[in-house]
User: Which sequence fits this backbone?
């Protein structure tokens, strides 16, 4: 299971942190913060206790989060299970309108076969149609338009 990301907005930039204080701030283990130091988080000096400046900690976490982001290109939907943007299986997508201006594209991941979702505005839906086949669900028929009688009717 993936661990949640440390939110850089919790760091006070006018303060310095020890390894234990930084770990407590994010609810992480102190070895996690030590691993950040080994990965390039700058410290004040080589003496003990190891001090980390607030602006350095915030910048390190912000940069780390920016490097992990994977923006979806046109025709791709982010798969939560694979942690990567993917093209839908067979380039088949279903559009489910949420409001008049926003819809939800639903597709199947070609690798793990899980459901992928992407919100898209109706104005930008035309640019997606060239990259993948989009189906629009039809409205359900009204009861009086059916030729078969209703099975749960007690009227005689």
Assistant:
């Amino acid at each position: 299971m993936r661990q949640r990301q440390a939110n850089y907005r919790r760091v006070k930039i006018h303060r310095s942190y020890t390894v234990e204080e930084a770990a407590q701030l994010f609810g992480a283990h102190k070895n996690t913060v030590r691993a950040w130091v080994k990965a390039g988080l700058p410290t004040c000096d080589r003496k003990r206790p190891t001090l980390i400046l607030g602006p350095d900690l915030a910048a390190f976490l912000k940069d780390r989060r920016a490097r992990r982001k994977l923006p979806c290109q046109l025709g791709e939907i982010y798969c939560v299970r694979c942690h990567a943007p993917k093209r839908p299986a067979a380039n088949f997508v279903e559009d489910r309108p949420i409001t008049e201006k926003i819809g939800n594209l639903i597709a199947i991941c070609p690798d793990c076969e899980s459901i992928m979702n992407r919100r898209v505005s109706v104005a930008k839906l035309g640019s997606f149609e060239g990259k993948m086949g989009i189906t629009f669900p039809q409205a359900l028929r009204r009861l009086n338009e059916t030729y078969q009688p209703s099975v749960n009717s007690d009227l005689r």
Remarks:
- The longest helix spans residues 54-68.
- Residues 77-135 form one domain.
- The mean pLDDT is 82.
- The chain has two domains: 8-68, 77-135.
